[in-house]
Amino acid sequence: MHDFSWNSAWWVFNFVANYANIKYSYMIKDIQKVQKEPEDNFFAWQPAIEKATQELLKTNPEVASGFLTDYSVSHGEEVVKRWKELGEDLIRKYNDGYVQDDKRGWPRSVGYPEEWLRDVLKLRGDHFKLPAWEDNGKTNGLW
Predict the structure, then answer these.
(1) Is position 17 within any domain?
(2) In sequence order, what are the residues at sequence separation of 6 or more whose Cβ sits closer than 8 angstroms to the Cβ of residue 121?
(3) Cα dihedral angle (25, 26, 28, 34), rounded to 10 degrees?
(4) Residue 67 in 3-state DSSP?
(5) Number of domains in the chain
(6) Angle value at C-alpha 46, between 40 and 48, nearest 5 degrees
(7) Which sign, positive or negative, has the C-alpha torsion 70, 71, 73, 75?
(8) Domain encompassing residue 91
(9) CA terminus-to-terminus distance, the chain
(10) DSSP H helix total and E strand total for the chain
(11) CB 30 within 8 A of CB 89
(12) Is the separation of the CB atoms in 30 and 90 below 8 Å?
């Protein structure tokens, strides 16, 4: 698990979780929408899957096992595929402190929370100080 791979469910889910930490309050709505899609699908199909499995168990437990395995694997792969697409969508939509507004066609700046800005200044305040300006007569007083 040391090498990142979009083919690994672990990395795909952790990518989305970690990327969401950047702007969670903005991204959570997008995440919940995508999360709801497979959940609703699973709940809708669950009674039929259980009924089919019970019938298969009566006649051939091995086939029932294969049926459930195929169902679980295919749906798991579909969720990972959709979560990867979600990760790519989050990168596109929430990039460099901006939120891409698909209706307007260009990104809007959302800035950073006041508390975060204060913490950065406390920790690295000297980093943001500008050096003292010396004219030395080179600008003829224009500045």
Answers:
(1) yes
(2) 128
(3) 180
(4) helix
(5) 1
(6) 125
(7) positive
(8) 9-128
(9) 56
(10) 4, 3
(11) yes
(12) yes
Mean pLDDT of 59-65: 97
The residue whose two tokens read 């195929």 is 70
Sign of CA dihedral 12, 33, 95, 106: positive
Instruction: Record the tokens describing residue 43, joined without a space.
Output: 């709940």
| Angstrom distance (rounded) from CA 1 to CA 8 | 9
Q: What is the pTM of this model?
A: 0.73
C-alpha 59, offset from chain centre: 44
Which among 139, 3, 8 is positioned nearest to 80, based on CA atoms? 8
DSSP-derived letter for residue 3 is S
pLDDT, one tens digit per residue, over 87-138 is 999 999 998 888 988 787 788 888 777 898 899 899 988 888 888 877 666 6
**pLDDT value, residue 63:** 97
Residue with tokens 């990395």: 11
The phi, psi pair for 80, rounded to 5°, reads -60, -45
4 occurs within a structural domain: no
* pLDDT average, residue stretch 1-10: 90
Answer yes or no: is 138 within a domain. no
Residue 40 belongs to some domain of the structure: yes
Cβ pair 83, 90 in contact under 8 A: no
